[in-house]
Amino acid sequence: MHVVRLSLTDYRNYARAELELGPGTTVLVGRNGQGKTNLVESIGYLATLASHRVSSDQALVRAGADAAIVRALLAHAERELLVELQLNRTGANRAQLNRSPVKTRELPRYAHSVLFAPEDLAIVRGEPSVRRRLLDELLVQRTPRLAGVMSDYERVLRQRNTLLKSARARGLAAEKLTTLDIWDERLVQLGAEIIDQRVALVAELAGPLALAYASIVDADHAPTLRPLLSIDGADPEAEPGAEASEATSAGDEDGSPGPGTTTTAARFAEALRVLRPKELERGVTLAGPHRDDVLLMLNGLPAKGYASHGESWSFALSLRLASAELLRRDSATGDPVLVLDDVFAELDRARRERLAAAIGDYEQVLVTAAVLEDVPEQLVARVIRIEAGRVLDEGDGDA
């Protein structure tokens, strides 16, 4: 798959923008703050229904406008699809496929993209939420219906937390809060599917991760990843350092079943039963996919806290490459669009060259850079300059 044409209206700093693209590598060059990242961010949004820089869609709508529009003409082998997304400042977003309305969450079925960015260092060094997001965005691209499951889970979680806070304020005992059982059942049903999907994805990423890391670093540092599940006792959100230890099963402390002894749904339900008194004390749900993490290891040690800056960067890039490999392997649409947003400036020359070699055979690669010299020569095929929200072809404007 590749993007043939990208059109933006009232998106970020663009009143209007038209960008003609094609297979191969395109480098977007311009000083910081000119709008390079805004262009590639819009492509990433179509694929993941999220921005890699902000959590709210409001920031994507140009100041003074009511809505932003992203249009992308996508080439799928011999077929072309027009994907359109309207991001509304108020109200629900809207989407179209070939001018016919579709649900917004259907867009990742047609637009596949993997984006590398400086923010990716947080995959290794940041909070558990960053690693959860990495998995969930990949899951949605591979199985778009999971966007609905995740949205429903978040809705039930909010309602359950509201009930817990209300019960805490009223001083209700756990045994008197029978209405919580209804929310528990729905939370377990949705959450167990998310947990199982994430665990399976972590296992699938293992092989591609090791190969990608070796291709970037040219060394075997034994990169591995393992899920840490709150329903089995791990609580990285509440206990600093928990992500560096083995997940303690709920059965070890509270008598509930440990991992592998029963279904995910049964373990989740039992964890909620055991934790209910604590949840009433704190007014928050203490187990579920919203509190899980993934333990990243290098040379038998947690990457977070032990890996060097270069090793952390290599791990993060390798996870993105592994994600792209899974999409390439399983998708009927072919390669995802690879986006490297100001990544090469963060890498030494050797890693730049190895990364360029690793991505060289993807159908479409989009690179942003403040300085063209940062980009390996083999990736400099077509150059487009970006200046103050304007798209300039190579050679336009000042030299």
TrEMBL record:
Outline the extent of the RecF/RecN/SMC N-terminal domain.
Answer: 3-370
Protein name per its UniProtKB record: DNA replication and repair protein RecF
Q: Which family does it belong to?
A: Belongs to the RecF family.
> Where is it predominantly found?
cytoplasm
- Region (Disordered) residue spans: 228-263
Plastid found in the keyword field: no
Q: Which portions of the chain have biased composition (kind: Low complexity)?
A: 241-250
